[in-house]
Amino acid sequence: TAAPIRIKAVHVVNAPPIMSSIFNLVNPLLPKKIRDRVFIHSRNGGWQNLHASIPADIVPKKYGGKICDEKLISCLENVEELEKKFLKTFAFGSIKNQHKRKSMKVIC
């Protein structure tokens, strides 16, 4: 099934150095659109490369950003609650009418 989202970029954080090497080998074989959207940030590369794409204001402290863990936990709790509401709203099927038609005539 298709998801109604558009992925602008994929950032792989804390990637082992071997992953960067493998990606560099495979990169020329990928379509340009994907090459422009996939970024590998290795452990020893520092966070400057990551912060060039994503502002430090929205990155957790453990990745060199400014957001503390408490804010992340409350954000995740809100996302879980919204997910429940979303799934309930967009559940498959239809709501059955509570009342039945009194006759089979077409009402004009």
Automatic annotation (TrEMBL):
Which SUPFAM superfamilies would you find in this protein's record?
A: CRAL/TRIO domain
An example Gene Ontology molecular-function term: phosphatidylinositol bisphosphate binding
Record's InterPro entries? CRAL-TRIO_dom (IPR001251), CRAL-TRIO_dom_sf (IPR036865)
Query: Could you tell me which residue ranges the CRAL-TRIO domain spans?
Result: 1-71
Query: Pfam families annotated for this entry?
Result: CRAL_TRIO
PROSITE patterns recorded: CRAL_TRIO
Query: A Gene Ontology CC term for this entry?
Result: membrane
Q: What PANTHER family does the record point to?
A: ALPHA-TOCOPHEROL TRANSFER PROTEIN-RELATED, RETINOL-BINDING PROTEIN PINTA
The name under which this protein is listed is CRAL-TRIO domain-containing protein
Q: Which organism is it from?
A: Araneus ventricosus
